[in-house]
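Hi V.,

You were right to ask for the full record rather than a summary. Here it is.
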Amino acid sequence: MKNIVIAGTGGLASEVTEYISDSNNDKLLGYLDCTDENMTKYDYTAPLLGHENNFVPKKDICFLIAIANVEIGKKVAETLISKGLKPYTLIHNTCQISKTATIGEGNILAPFSMVGPKSTIGNFNLINYYTAVTHDVRIGNWNSISPRTTITGGVQIGDDNIFGTGVSILPFKTVGNRCKVQSGVTVFKNIPDEHYAKTDTELNISKI
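Predicted structure:
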């Protein structure tokens, strides 16, 4: 059994809380945040443990980052590691993970996501609901991948990227670092560092 603290108390933390509750092997000790405003909103039963800077951990405690802002998440992770906490990778029990896949530390794999053969996932990535990481994919660190994203064979993804809902990345394409991809986009070209991939199609809404 793993003893876990969650950094963050917002919407992402509420989802992660449910993933942990679905497991019979993990125990949620509480939350790290500077405010208690979300504790009632999300009906958390585990306690607020305070700010990460003031948190005094016991031995053998793991942590998960449930903070949408990557830069803040990185700082919190650095603080917790310096206090002796270990990053924990949470894989929901409905996920399908190949025996030949490699998954690093601090990742969150949401329900019904999958990772295929010979794929490698780095550290501190969020792989959301029904996302498919197929064969021979390489994913770096600190990527946020929204629900129902499809990452096909041989794709390479760098660090600090944000993918909207329902993105499809075609085989052997490359996404650099610090990129954003709009929801629903099919990536059929390589995306260089620090670029935003979007479609030019506008959604026109008119009165019936």
